[in-house]
Amino acid sequence: MRSRHLAGVAGLAIVAALTLAGCGSDSDGDTASDTAPTTGTTSCTYAEGGSAAKEVDPPSAQASESGQVAATIATSAGDIKAELDADAAPCTVHSFVSLAKQGYFDATSCHRLTTAGILVLQCGDPTGTGSGGPGYTFDDELDAMPKADADGTIAYPAGTLAMANAGPSTNGSQFFIVYGDTRLPPAYTIFGQVDDAGVALVQKVADAGTDDANGPGDGHPTTPVDITKVTVG
């Protein structure tokens, strides 16, 4: 299994946890999606990849969500409210909604916090190792991304909700919340926005620091962020 990570400016690599769903891309496998229903506007492919950290069914092959989808991530540190952008990232939102409704995120911990170079909190891995995923992968949705600057990065503003990954089109279940303006390559699907109160909550967690397990300012948050439930719609 590969860890899903974020690569920052000037070659800064966040290797362990920010990598999103870790085990996803070990195998191309067969398509792991259901037969498409008659409703919906976007066809999605969810391919078998890696072993599931928690048993779930793959999403249906047709994304039925549209517009802005409300989501609440209830955690031990407080509720984080977000709007998921199903128009910009339909297959990503469809997967997130499917996982949430199946309780995949319930009783999991946000396993990585970075407070230097990039400012993000990463969640969505039931194993808490940075290598766990749902047993399937899906493609990036980057069409709406701005062109990278000369240094190869773009701005990910505070409040951005995006997918972590282990390379191109290896999305699974791990996602990250940007709590302070951060520059990263345009390689991470942005699928929503956390509200100001949620950003402030994550900032408070960040102010308490990390255990530096992966280096200075990079590790498990000192203040645990344990997800009790994710609700959508």
TrEMBL record:
Keywords: Isomerase, Rotamase, Signal. Residues 75-232 form the PPIase cyclophilin-type domain. It catalyses: [protein]-peptidylproline (omega=180) = [protein]-peptidylproline (omega=0). Residues 209-233 are annotated as: Disordered. CDD domains: cyclophilin. The keyword Nucleotide-binding does not apply. Coiled coil: none annotated. Residues 1-21 form the signal peptide. Its EC number is 5.2.1.8. GO terms for molecular function: peptidyl-prolyl cis-trans isomerase activity. It holds the Pfam family Pro_isomerase. It is an enzyme of class 5 (isomerase). InterPro entries: Cyclophilin-like_dom_sf, Cyclophilin-type_PPIase_dom, Cyclophilin_A-like. The keyword Transmembrane helix does not apply. PPIases accelerate the folding of proteins. It catalyzes the cis-trans isomerization of proline imidic peptide bonds in oligopeptides. Belongs to the cyclophilin-type PPIase family. PANTHER family: PEPTIDYL-PROLYL CIS-TRANS ISOMERASE B-RELATED, PEPTIDYL-PROLYL CIS-TRANS ISOMERASE-RELATED. This is Peptidyl-prolyl cis-trans isomerase. It comes from Nocardioides hankookensis.
